[in-house]
Amino acid sequence: LFTRAWTFSRGSPGLDHLPPDDRPEIAFAGRSNVGKSSLINALVGQRTLARASNTPGRTQELNFFTDPNADLYLVDMPGYGFAEAPKDKVAAWNKTLRSFLAGRRTLLRVFVLVDARHGLKPVDDEIMALLDGAAVSYQVLLTKADKISRTDLERVTANTTKSLAKHPAAYPRVLATSSETGMGFEDLRAVVAKLIDA
Ligand code: GTP
Ligand code: MG
């Protein structure tokens, strides 16, 4: 599954260029700059598969990645919330990603990425409510855990876990990750492997 054979399959700016829904998909959602593209790269062990950058608004399409050894798409998404891009563009991404998250038949799980320094924001709650309403299973991953102390990480993990209680479609376990240090990726790979297996 994590054989470093992942390749870019297709990018879809709207919902009109999606690949056929013929296999399970795992999508990575979150606010702009939270570390979605970096996390996908760290997950598959390929530094340059998904394009990451310090400028919020880097990923501008739904990007689908495949591996010949896996019957699965990994989907990198544009960020929601603040992005350094024109307003009408951001509005279009938001519309696209919301429709995709709520309506994609083959979505196996959505990972909702949250910056460990900031915790859940109102816009994350909105996205989670959308997923609750569509009965799409999702799990929260804290990102950039290397940027805060252990104590702060424990606190934000506990607070985030507590907030999930009011979200019926949320998987209760919050994973803390760092794409820089590799923290949390053993657990994350196990979660993904189990999902595919099931
Ligand atoms: P958009 O595509 O713009 O929505 O952003 P994104 O969520 O894909 O974020 P991206 O992966 O491009 O990362 C944004 C910035 O955060 C980059 O400068 C990354 O190097 C940095 N970053 C991502 N993950 C980590 C991490 O775990 N630790 C640290 N220290 N920096 C990270
Ligand atoms: Mg990105």
- As laid out across the biggest beta sheet, the strand order is 1-3-4-2-5-6-7
Fourth CATH level, the homologous superfamily: P-loop containing nucleotide triphosphate hydrolases
Assembly form of the protein:
single chain
- Note the beta-strand portion: 15-25%
The shape, in one word, is: globular
Largest sheet: 7 strands, mixed
Using the coordinates shown, work out and report the CATH topology: Rossmann fold
- Count of separate structural domains: 1
The secondary-structure class comes to: alpha/beta
Rg from C-alpha positions?
15 Å
How many β strands by DSSP? Answer: 7
What's the mean pLDDT score?
Answer: 95
* CATH hierarchy, class: Alpha Beta
Q: Give the CATH architecture.
A: 3-Layer(aba) Sandwich
Low-confidence stretches: none
Number of helices: 5
Give the topology string: H per helix, E per strand. Answer: EEHEEHEHEHEH
Instruction: Give the bound compounds.
Output: guanosine-5'-triphosphate, magnesium ion
Helix content: 25-40%
Protein name: Probable GTP-binding protein EngB
GO cellular component, one term: cytosol
Function: Necessary for normal cell division and for the maintenance of normal septation.
InterPro entries: G_ENGB_dom, GTP-bd, GTP-bd_ribosome_bio_YsxC, P-loop_NTPase
